[in-house]
Amino acid sequence: MMKIASLALLLGSTAAFTPAPIGRALPSVVTSPEFQRTLVQVSNKPAGHDVRSSGPAMEMDPEERKIQEALSEHQQNAPKLGFDVDVRSLVEYNHGFAVMSTNSKANPGFPGGSVVGFAPDEQGRPVFIFSGMSTHTQDLLADPRCSVTIASKEFKGAADGRVNLMGKATLCNKEERDAMKAVYLAKHPGAFWVDFGDFNWFRMDEITDIRFVGGFARAGSITPEEYFNAKPDPVAVFGPAIATHMNDDHMSSTIAMVAHAIPGLVVTEAVITSVDSLGMYVKVTRTPRASDQPQQFKIRLPFPRKIEDRGDVKKVIVEMTQAAQKTSAEAK
């Protein structure tokens, strides 16, 4: 069962950006009394990322509040992948590099960090090949406990996804090497060192904890069982290519789709960061009413139906663009 961490949508009070305690459930609507009570409880705590102003709270413009409420309701109801599928997809379609933290053999009591290549096998277990001279090799041989932090392929900042896997990476036997070599070369076709005699194969066979941050207001954890039972989203594998094409050639269409989905939300930029079978994540830029400071945040833009293949993505985006254009024309 996933645990949800902080929720920070654009409300009128900056207290909304104070992380909420990790819990087992997420309030259904951010404007609900339950959520408001959470904000009050958090704002009374001295610890955490407290960005509250010492001055009086500013009254939000009524029209701006209406837009924020529409945005909040839309995002609450927008279909999203489950955390398990999101995590499994991120690990599967990552560029094949991660940060591994080990218990340092040379400096006991301190963690050692290394950027390492990896490839997930069919079960989602990271496979590694390390030189015998590498410090992380010596660390793992002495203590197999480690964590691996994997960022999404499109990662550029805090609004983008990352996963932390904690567990044990152990040395693999000779009988498994051919299968592991095939897995690794599928992700790293130029890895000529896989045949070097002084390199060793490791695999993270035991995963004990999985933490996930999908961006602002989307963070939590899943169990190893949920991770191993999940399958990568079939559309996410070619999502980056679709996002690049739309961002380079059709951003005006994405802006129109955002305006159509959330009436009143006028954005000046809309960059698709990821695409999956249920929709897209879009980083938008807008300037709130009665303000001259632009804001950037990520929103979920769902598809009208679940996508099954690459060709269907194009059809659905065309449909969404045409619907947005029709609404815009009727408004004029």
Question: Could you explain how this protein is built, in words?
Answer:
The chain has 332 residues and is an alpha+beta fold. Helices cover 32% and strands 26% of the residues. Strands 1, 2, 3, 4, 5, 6, 7, 8 and 9 form a nine-stranded antiparallel β-sheet that branches. Strands 10-11-12 form a three-stranded antiparallel β-sheet. A hairpin with a 7-residue loop joins β2 and β3 (111-117). α7 (239-249) crosses α8 and α8 crosses α9. It starts with a strand and ends with a helix.
Tag the structure with descriptive keywords.
single chain, 332 residues, alpha+beta, three-stranded antiparallel sheet, elongated, disordered N terminus
Our Rg estimate from Cα atoms comes to: 23 Å
Global shape: elongated
Number of strands: 12
- How widely separated are the two ends? 48 Å
Q: What class would the helix/strand composition place it in? A: alpha+beta
Order of secondary-structure elements = EHHHEEEEHEEHEEHHHEEEH
Low-confidence runs of at least 5 consecutive residues:
1-53
Fraction in helix: 25-40%
Number of helices: 9
Mean pLDDT across all amino acids: 84
Q: What proportion of the residues form beta strands (DSSP E)?
A: 25-35%
Described by strand count, sense and barrel closure, the largest sheet is: 9 strands, antiparallel
